[in-house]
Amino acid sequence: MSTILLVSGTGTEIGKTVVTAAVAAAARGRRVAVLKPAQTGLVPGEPGDAAEVARLAGGHVTAVELARFPEPLAPATAARRAGLAPVRPFEVAEAAQKLATEHDLVLVEGAGGLLVRFDDEGSTLADAARLLSAPVLVVAPAGLGTLNATALTAEALRSRGLSCRGVVIGSMPSEPDLASRCNIEDLPVAAGAPLLGAVPAGAGALPGPEFAARASSWLAQELGGTWTTR
Fold first, then answer.
1. What are 53-66's pLDDT values in tens digits?
2. Residue 17 is assigned to a ligand binding site
3. Residue 87 DSSP class
4. Cβ distance 12 to 208 under 8 Å?
5. Gap between the Cα atoms of 154 and 147, Å rounded
6. Of 11, 19, 35, 36, which one is the catalytic site residue?
7. In the predicted structure, residue 209 carries a pLDDT above the cut 70
8. What's the pLDDT score for residue 27?
9. Is 98 an active-site residue?
């Protein structure tokens, strides 16, 4: 049976794409698809987040992008300014379900945080998750300030009847400060869900084969890896 997992975050530029790639790489041996509903900040022809996941995770990943808007803004704003139709949650759900008929794992990577608007009616990734009845993996920063943002994201999920699969730190410093070290224990408390990994800072710059070979060591067993907090 196919699994659909949505990957969101507590904000932007916190490592969602790299975490998505790590989950895809750890699923080697399975047919994996990554779906990017709305890619912003890139013009046609430039490789987007879905392509980056495929580059890092390996050739077993199918990369799909539903819409692209050139300005680096929230999807609803970027679509409106470009004069293009926005992405709707039902389109995300339909695309994910179609991919699930041919893949064992479908990863849907959001844009920015959970409640970033897809359209002017206020639709979000949470609405797509609800249509899919799929869990959400939350990507969070390591350092100071992450606990509040993580708690708010988890609360937003619970208030909508959605399941938080867990939290992954998107960019763990090689020499973590006091807050980052303490947050290893505090993040699961804030989220009310397990901490399922920590991807090292700079991992996205690794060559694809090295990234794919190391990815499972950054993720917990629940995501196909070997990482533990100890």
1. 999 998 789 999 99
2. yes
3. P
4. no
5. 10
6. 36
7. yes
8. 94
9. no
